[in-house]
From TrEMBL:
<keyword id="KW-0520">NAD</keyword>
<dbReference type="GO" id="GO:0004029">
    <property type="term" value="F:aldehyde dehydrogenase (NAD+) activity"/>
</dbReference>
<dbReference type="InterPro" id="IPR016163">
    <property type="entry name" value="Ald_DH_C"/>
</dbReference>
<keyword id="KW-0560">Oxidoreductase</keyword>
<dbReference type="InterPro" id="IPR016161">
    <property type="entry name" value="Ald_DH/histidinol_DH"/>
</dbReference>
<dbReference type="InterPro" id="IPR016162">
    <property type="entry name" value="Ald_DH_N"/>
</dbReference>
<dbReference type="Pfam" id="PF00171">
    <property type="entry name" value="Aldedh"/>
</dbReference>
<comment type="similarity">
    <text>Belongs to the aldehyde dehydrogenase family.</text>
</comment>
<dbReference type="InterPro" id="IPR044638">
    <property type="entry name" value="ALDH7A1-like"/>
</dbReference>
<feature type="active site">
    <location>
        <position position="251"/>
    </location>
</feature>
<feature type="domain" description="Aldehyde dehydrogenase">
    <location>
        <begin position="20"/>
        <end position="474"/>
    </location>
</feature>
<comment type="subunit">
    <text>Homotetramer.</text>
</comment>
<dbReference type="InterPro" id="IPR029510">
    <property type="entry name" value="Ald_DH_CS_GLU"/>
</dbReference>
<dbReference type="InterPro" id="IPR015590">
    <property type="entry name" value="Aldehyde_DH_dom"/>
</dbReference>
<protein>
    <recommendedName>
        <fullName>aldehyde dehydrogenase (NAD(+))</fullName>
        <ecNumber>1.2.1.3</ecNumber>
    </recommendedName>
</protein>
Length: 501
């Protein structure tokens, strides 16, 4: 029997809402959970509850908050297999990938638990005597976090862990189609002893969330917005925050390029393209968009890549497969639209396109050769198991092609030439560059994020994300017993600038 899930605000269930069924995409007739979706008032009310709880949480010493993060990591680790199986059941991600995703939460907790003792400020020398200057990191207040469902537990942890560690209260709105996974993660977080209201979870659809966020920003109960999702929605979120003089943390889509140089290890490049292009059924923001292969190796690379795709196993995510079903019906419908972008001048490999036989949301992997710089398939993100291929002559041309779509999340180059590596790194607009590795993959202690259509330059993970969830506060302490005016009462040493040997 499917579980029923409700929003939790201030530690209390919100028992009313519009029912929504989160289904197993491998068996769409099977309901994983029935979720009661709240309206704008539920979201705005959660922000008020967080605002009421944030001051007491901020007063908890940061090292103690770090111990709470440590407890979350241990709880997730102890429940790793159960959580991973739920992720596989709800969004169709192969179990091995789901287990890796859960491991990412543990890694994130392991990194940030120590930051509770390293939320460093600085003691700065003053230009005047008997005066000291200090800087402090202070919590922003309430963070409203909205996440997608392709990484239903790992990506939320990139927001929740540092936000809580820094002393903020949080309102989290996960994707509806990943509600059961999100609810399980919420329970693990609160089992670590978080006070009521410090972490709130709200289930709602997009329009209700946007309206609730608009209301909360107007009421002044939200000081930071984190959003992971499409570039289109991210633009709307950014505009809304801008009207309230806030800078959100936006992690958006990608059209991630992989450049294959003439000296590349082609077998390694094929392996990287297979994983980056079709892992999670191509439904990652870091999924490979276009292979940009040098004309001297294009044909050989394409032949090997098509053979690897043809041999790959697609099916039950509980088995040993490259990928399982698409996340949800809405993504299946959108993917079928992307297939309509294939033009007569394209060559489609390695076989049939469209939906595979069976009840699940399974789709054939597609490689499209002959992309041109003005093709929609070249310029737009295609969230699903489709990879484009084009050619280049010079590295400068490859960099220009890599940057042309206007996204700037992840990128990759396969080469043995260090000069090519650094020229590519210098020229590509992506926030992340991989060398002889796929466009997908992140580690908890490196900055993650993009530029252009992929985001607003904010970064997640590592110490860099601390700037999203803290504000710098400067303090000066004058113990001279008199008023010393900056830039006026400055101690000075007078040089003899006319001196000559």
């Amino acid at each position: 029997m499917a579980r029923q899930i409700v929003s939790i605000v201030g530690g209390a269930d919100v028992p009313s809402g519009v029912p929504y069924e989160s289904v197993n995409p491998a068996r769409p007739a099977e309901t994983v959970a029935t979720v009661l979706l709240g309206g704008p008032e539920v979201f705005a009310g959660a922000c008020r509850a967080a605002a009421a709880a944030r001051h007491d949480w901020a007063r908890v010493p940061a090292p103690v908050r770090g111990r709470a993060i440590a407890s979350i990591g241990r709880l997730v680790e102890a429940n790793a297999e159960t959580l991973a199986r739920l992720v596989t059941e709800e969004i169709g991600k192969p179990y091995a990938e789901s287990l890796g995703e859960v491991r990412e939460i543990v890694d994130t907790c392991d990194f940030f638990l120590g930051e509770g003792r390293r939320l460093y400020g600085q003691t700065v020398p003053s230009e005047m005597p008997d005066k000291s200057l200090f800087t402090f990191r202070v919590p922003v207040g309430v963070a409203a976090i909205v996440t997608a469902g392709n990484f239903p537990v790992a990506v939320p942890s990139w927001y929740l862990v540092p936000a809580l560690l820094c002393g903020n209260a949080v309102v989290w709105k996960p994707a509806e189609y990943a509600s059961a996974s999100a609810h399980a993660l919420y329970r693990l977080f609160t089992a670590a002893g978080l006070p009521d209201g410090v972490l709130n979870i709200v289930f709602a659809d997009g329009p209700a969330t946007f309206a609730g966020l608009d209301r909360a920003l107007g009421e002044g109960t939200v000081q930071k917005v984190g959003f992971t999702g499409s570039s289109e929605v991210g633009r709307s979120v950014g505009e809304l925050c801008g009207r309230h003089l806030q800078s959100p943390c936006l992690e958006l889509g990608g059209k991630n390029p992989m450049v294959v140089m003439p000296d590349a290890d082609l077998d390694l490049a094929v392996e990287g393209a297979l994983f980056a292009g079709f892992g999670t059924a191509g439904q990652r923001c870091t999924s490979l968009g276009t292979v940009i292969a040098h004309e001297d190796v294009h044909d050989e690379f394409l032949a090997r890549f098509a053979a690897a795709v043809r041999a790959a196993k697609i099916g039950d995510p509980n088995g040993d497969v490259l990928y399982g079903p698409l996340l949800d019906r809405r993504f299946a419908e959108r993917y079928e639209e992307y297939l309509g972008w294939i033009q007569p001048h394209h060559t489609v490999l390695p076989g049939p396109t469209g939906r595979m036989d069976g009840e699940g949301l399974y789709y054939h992997p597609v490689v499209v050769d002959g992309l041109r710089p003005d093709d929609r398939l070249f310029l737009e993100e295609t969230f699903g198991p489709i990879v484009g291929v084009t050619t280049f002559r010079t590295l400068d041309e490859a960099v220009e092609l890599a940057n042309r779509p206007g996204y700037g999340l992840s990128s990759s180059i396969y080469t043995r030439d260090p000069k090519a590596v650094f020229r590519f790194r210098e020229g590509v607009s992506a926030g992340m560059v991989s060398v002889n590795n796929s466009t997908s993959g992140a580690e908890a202690h490196l900055p993650f994020g993009g530029n252009g259509r992929s985001g607003n330059g904010s970064r997640q993970s590592g110490v860099w994300v601390l700037d999203q969830f803290t504000r710098w506060q400067a303090m000066n302490w004058d113990y001279s017993g008199r008023l010393q005016k900056a830039q006026m009462d400055v101690a000075e040493i007078v040089p003899d600038l006319g001196f000559r040997l």
